[in-house]
Amino acid sequence: MKILFIGGTGIISAAISRALVNEGHELYLINRGSKNAELEGKAKVLIADIKEEEKVADLIKEHNFDVVADFIAFVPAQLERDYRLFKGKTKQFIFISSASAYQKPLSDYRINEGTPLSNPYWDYSRNKIACEDYLMKLYREEGFPVTIVRPSHTYDERSVPLGVHGAKGSYQVIKRMLEGKKVIIHGDGTSLWTMTHNSDFAKGFVGLLGNIHAIGEAVQITSDESLTWNQIYKAIADALGVELKACYVSSEFLDAASTEDFRGSLIGDKANTVVFDNTKIKRLVPGFTCTKRFDQGVKEVIEYVLSHPDYQKEDPEFDVWCDKVIAALDNAVKEIKNN
């Protein structure tokens, strides 16, 4: 197949790109050309910022594609641009939405594609919902060949997946663990979450490409493995060879005490117990299954991050904030006991 990715080098898309070139597909990437080293000589890179609509239109004017997928669209205006660019030039257009768009609070912890979309806590999720609405209207009214894919928490070797971290990523939490400090876990750590390795996600995604049964459909792709946050953090600590020292803090307190968007990322997402029903992707892609267990995958991530200084981004501001939150809770307990 002849496939075009807008993006193609992110956490989700990188594994898909690798899988496609290994299978011999003709892969094109539209991006700014700064992160293509791994795919050099294997994918054809159209160097452009997708925002430069006229330039992109010129680059693709002689091309038609079996599949176009946009991994970096977040608001409807970006998809309006995609529609102008690719109407009549692709047999399938795939939009990467988000499982965070599902109803919050959940009426049922078991999530499938029929779960209502509604998230009053997070602009990111509401924008993804608006994007889906726009594309499905095009499908219903004009036959635009849309497939919507909803990932949940997908990770790769470059960053340890966590619930609470600062703006610079998760490394500072890893550093705290290595230093024997307490780390913050939202809630009491017992809510269920799903982590999906990007190599597993890629299996399901590739199976949707050129799949006539996926046109007009929304499909979630996640692992079937459910983990508590306590299990997630314990697996990370075990991979580091250290004892987990946890400080449990309510998501509401974290949101109120931080300038980070914990209202969206926690209350609107990770604080909720979610278990995904992946019947649909398994029906559309027979044989699909995730095989990378989290405790195995996170060991690989830890090894990679600790051996690659470029991914060890310290965040002193977040570190100080953690110490303040933990101290405030400890002091509150002491004050209550003393009075």
Overall geometric form: globular
Question: What summary fits the major beta sheet?
Answer: 7 strands, parallel
Count of separate structural domains: 2
Q: What is the tally of helical segments?
A: 12
CATH class of the largest domain: Alpha Beta
* Share of helix, binned: 40-55%
Rg from Cα = 21 Å
- Give the ordered list of helices and strands: EHEEHEHEEHEEHEEEHEEHEHHEHHH
Q: What class do helices, strands and sheet pairing give? A: alpha/beta
Question: How would you sum up this structure, described in words?
Answer:
With 339 residues, the protein is α/β, with parallel strands linked by helices. The protein has 2 domains: 2-155 and 195-221, 3-Layer(aba) Sandwich (Rossmann fold); 171-194 and 226-274 and 293-330, Alpha-Beta Complex (UDP-galactose 4-epimerase, domain 1). 41% of the residues lie in helices and 17% in strands. It has helices at residues 11-22, 53-59, 76-86, 123-142, 171-178, 198-208, 229-240, 251-257, 262-270, 279-284, 294-307, 316-338, and strands at 2-6, 26-31, 44-47, 67-70, 93-96, 110-111, 146-151, 153-155, 183-186, 192-193, 195-197, 217-221, 227-228, 246-249, 275-276. The strands form 5 sheets. The chain has a 7-stranded parallel beta sheet, with helices on both faces. Strands 6-15 form a two-stranded parallel ribbon. α1 crosses α6 and α3 (76-86) runs parallel beside α4.
